[in-house]
Amino acid sequence: MTDDSTDGARPPRVTQPLASRDAGASVTHRRTVPGEARARGRGRFARLVRAVTAAALAPAAAATLAAPAVAAPGTATGGKGLRWEACAGVSTPDLRCARVTVPLDHSRRRGRTISVVISRLPATDPARRRGVLLTTGGGPGGPGVPLPVSLAPALSAEVRARYDLIGFDMRFVERSTPIGCGQPEEEPGGFWVRPATPGRFPAEAAEARRYAEDCVRASGWALPHATTANAARDMDLIRAALGEEKISYLGGSYAGLLGTVYGTLFPHRVDRFVLDSPVNADTIWRPYEMGRTPAFEQGTVALAAWAAARHAEYGLGETTAEVHATLTGILDRAARAPIVIGAHAWTVGELGALLVAGIYDERAFGVVAAAFAAVAAGREPFLPFPIRPPRPEGVPGVPADHHTATNIAYRCADAPWPRDPRVYLRDIAAERNRHPLFGPGNANINPCAFWPPAKDETVRLDGNSAPAALVVAALRDVAVPPSVSRAVAARIRGSRLVTIDAHTHAPFPHYGNACLNATVTHYLITGELPATDTACSTGNG
After folding, report:
1. Phi/psi at 459 (nearest 5 deg)?
2. Band of residue 30 on the pLDDT scale cut at 50, 70, 90
3. The one catalytic residue among 253, 277, 485, 495
């Protein structure tokens, strides 16, 4: 890790590592599904002991619970009519929602079904309407139904005139047959991770296994089918239900990955795709999560340098190294015992999630620096966002631990994870020296080591023959480093990459860079990609 501040000091070694959150194998052909593209080609915290018993590391047993039958009156199957109604949990009257029935298992179209909820804001000028622009949340596990409401004001009038904005909650997310793992609350950041605490590897492995078993008991009928490929197949049924020959798409972060998988499976259905900071389908999930560890370390240094320059305001330290030591000292203290301030005991998981929220976007540096300064002084920190994902208001039936459960379900089922504990122990040891803050936790064992097998296949990006896309990236992105976005652009022939020099994630359209937004807008309106990759100037102009 290098220090990019002017004081020239190097951040000290940290003893309590953290782990990154989202919120990225070769093809494993397990099952073919009709109607897809033929070409396949080519998705936190530190130390260890030695062994874990074979029983403790055995995969969780297969589920015996049956999936609910959720097809309901007014639900559309395939291309049949949709019934548009008010959207649960959304107060905007212009946004209307409908249910699309999809197979639980796309290789058994006549088997069990689940429902996927979609939303629609109609194009503002029917005479110029081109089609639909789909979008959904990142994560995996973020909702998409409300997104058209926040997206519409940020898009140009020309784009709004031409496209119906269509949001959707992916299968098992919020309104779309939600699942849980039987836990009383969400994990911090909605991301399951445990510190690779010295001497506690067997206990943390056992906890990971128990969580996987709890998930099987609560939602075992769904887990083998919680894959990005199945979500992409659901997207194509949404397309058919809407009566569209092709779809355009805007997806950021994990949703960008979903867009690439859709393009691989259904290239002839792709119109204009904007992939904003997309995760690379060829590296999901463990290689991607470990591969971005250096960016997390560098992001923390950037936050520390920023706070050091404002020591008079935050009091965290006068140099980058001093601020870094203050932050890691607070985390080390919380790792030994939660830090009690007022009525709340701050855990290392909560404070780690707070730090990750800060390093994702330079615009959050001030909020996170102030929060850590408050904790250091024993004061209750002010946070404008929840550390644990809240239940969506007005959406019935969402389990208390839903977002964590959905995130881990997709990450575990999308691609194989190591089953051998020695792999995790080896990687923890290697990461401890290289990336002491985030490396060991990112390398640590999690419930995916014990997950039931997926009834699907990993869809590699190098089998993608879709039309060229416009790929967006921020050059100092921590969550999806720009090298990942570049790889995605290179894999989809003819695609163009547009970048901004900013420390942020998924910048279109809300970061507000005029060059970036104009480039994306021109593409959505005309279908014309830039002649070459485009580097937009720093700043919002």
Report:
1. -100, 115
2. very low
3. 253
What is the per-residue pLDDT for 372?
98
User: pLDDT at position 17, please?
Assistant: 53
Please report which confidence band the pLDDT of residue 195 belongs to, taking 50, 70 and 90 as the band edges: confident
Annotated active-site residue 477? The verdict is: yes
Kindly report, residue by residue over 115-154, the tens digit of the pLDDT. 999 999 999 999 999 999 999 999 999 999 999 999 999 9
d(CA 160, CA 41): 37
> Residue 259 and residue 273: Cα distance in Å, rounded?
7
Catalytic, 29? Answer no
Q: How does pLDDT run across 304-326, given as a tens digit for each residue?
A: 999 999 999 999 999 999 999 99
Tokens describing residue 328: 């890691």
* Per-residue pLDDT at 82 exceeds 90: yes
DSSP 289-353: HHHTHHHHHHHHHHHHHHHHTTHHHH-S-SSHHHHHHHHHHHHHHHHHS-EEETTEEE-HHHHHH
Burial group, residue 267, by CB count within 10 angstroms (0-12, 13-18, 19+):
middle
- Exposure of 526 in the CB half-sphere (CA atoms within 13 A): 9
280 contacts 487 by C-beta, under 8 angstroms: yes
Task: Tell whether the torsion through CA atoms of 515, 516, 519 and 521 is positive or negative.
Answer: negative
Question: Of 387, 356, 355, 380, nearest to 369 (Cα)?
Answer: 355
For strands 113-121 and 163-168, give the pairing: antiparallel
Smallest CA-to-CA distance from 432 within 443, 446, 422 is with 443
Answer whether 193's CB lies under 8 Å from 21's CB: yes
Q: Enter the pTM of the model.
A: 0.87
* Six token digits for residue 57: 């590391």
Q: Which helix or strand (DSSP H or E) is residue 368 part of?
A: helix 365-376
| Catalytically annotated residue among 282, 477, 485, 495 | 477
C-beta of residue 87 within 8 angstroms of C-beta of residue 393: no
Q: What angle do CA 99, 186, 349 make, to 5 degrees?
A: 145
| 434 CB-near residues (< 8 Å, 6+ apart) | none
**What integer best gives the mean pLDDT of the chain?**
87
All structural domains of the chain, each given as residue ranges with its CATH number in brackets, are: 84-183+220-283+457-536 (3.40.50.1820)
- How many H-runs (helices) and E-runs (strands) does the chain carry? 16, 13
Residue in 484, 126, 424 with CA at minimum distance from that of residue 294: 484
Extract the tokens encoding 188: 């911090």
Residue 261 is classified by DSSP as H
Residue 533 annotated to the active site: no
Q: How many residues are there in the chain?
A: 541
**Token pair for 140:** 């995996």
Identified catalytic residue from 106, 403, 435, 505: 505
Containing H/E element for 131? strand 131-135
Tokens of 285: 């999930």
